[in-house]
Specification:
The modification 4-aspartylphosphate is found at residue 58. Residues 3-121 form the Response regulatory domain. The protein has helices spanning 13-27, 40-46, 66-76, 92-95, 109-123, 176-183, 225-237, and strands spanning 2-7, 32-37, 54-57, 81-85, 102-104, 132-136, 141-145, 149-153, 159-163, 170-172, 188-192, 195-198, 202-205, 209-212, 217-219. The chain starts with a strand and ends with a helix. It is elongated. The longest helix has 15 residues, at 13-27. It is built from 7 helices and 15 strands. Strands 2-1-3-4-5 form a 5-stranded parallel β-sheet. Strands 10-9-8-12-11 form a 5-stranded antiparallel β-sheet, sandwiched between helices. It folds into 2 domains: 2-129, Rossmann fold (3-Layer(aba) Sandwich); 132-237, LytTr DNA-binding domain (OB fold (Dihydrolipoamide Acetyltransferase, E2P)), CATH 2.40.50.
Length: 238
């Protein structure tokens, strides 16, 4: 079962696009739960508490257009597949800024959506078993793949999340205690009052510190050494 959001300001087009999209996925034996929205504001509000694997998004809409909505989705959600469904072919290159999975022309919907579904199966279905962590902030929900997070560093009111492949960390306003509770089921170890580490990225544990696979050294609290080693060995065994 995958959750799909469809956003289009054309009330007449919504049920037609929704039915065709569901039929195309069903033909590939993929069950869907599809929710419709008439504008980008409604969609973004829903995404604060619902994770959609796919967003089917019109471009030409009043208020926030589809390109702007896509950019806002990308600000806090890197794993949703965005598929543009539009006749605005002149804005295809502009849409690349949000790295869409594909572009479906309304005038050729059935053929285009079939090709995009095949692309989704090939490139994205493998991510269905990936675990996600939802970080609730004051204004939104940040959804990240658990195996994408290397470690979290405490920094007073705002904690820093270090992601693989990104040099600059993301900042989130949550206490380390709450983050520990949230991430522990996903293989994170509290090695110090100021650090939570994903065990997948630990290369070796030394006397008073550990070394990550990329060479970064992080301190281990004096009272936590035994606990850190025990948890790490246990997680490796699982």
């Amino acid at each position: 079962m995958i959750k799909i959001a469809l956003c289009d300001d054309d009330k007449k087009a919504l049920p037609i696009i929704a039915g065709a999209a569901e039929s195309t996925f069903r033909a590939q034996r993929i069950h869907t739960e599809l929710q419709c929205f008439l504008n980008g504001e409604e969609l973004l509000k829903a995404m604060e508490h619902t994770h959609f694997q796919i967003v089917l998004l019109d471009i030409d809409m009043p208020g926030l257009d589809g390109i702007e909505v896509g950019k806002r989705i990308r600000e806090g959600n890197n794993n949703t597949c965005i598929i543009y469904v539009s006749e605005c072919e002149n804005r295809v290159f502009e849409s690349f800024a949000v790295q869409p999975l594909g572009f479906v022309r309304k005038s050729n919907f059935l053929n285009d959506i079939a090709a995009v579904v095949q692309l989704y199966i090939k490139n994205c279905m493998q991510d269905q078993n990936v675990e996600y962590i939802k970080f609730s902030t004051r204004n939104s929900i940040l959804t990240l793949k658990s195996n994408q997070i290397r470690y979290i560093e405490g920094s007073r009111n705002y904690q820093k999340i270090f992601l693989t492949g990104q040099q600059e960390p993301m900042e989130i306003k949550m206490t380390m205690e709450k983050l520990e509770y949230l991430t522990e089921p996903h293989g994170f170890i509290r090695i110090h009052k100021g650090y939570l580490v994903n065990y997948l990225y630990i290369q070796r544990i030394q006397t008073n510190h550990l070394i990550l696979q990329d060479g970064i050294t992080l301190p281990i609290g004096r009272s936590k050494m035994g606990e850190v080693k025990s948890k790490f060995i246990s997680m490796l065994g699982n």
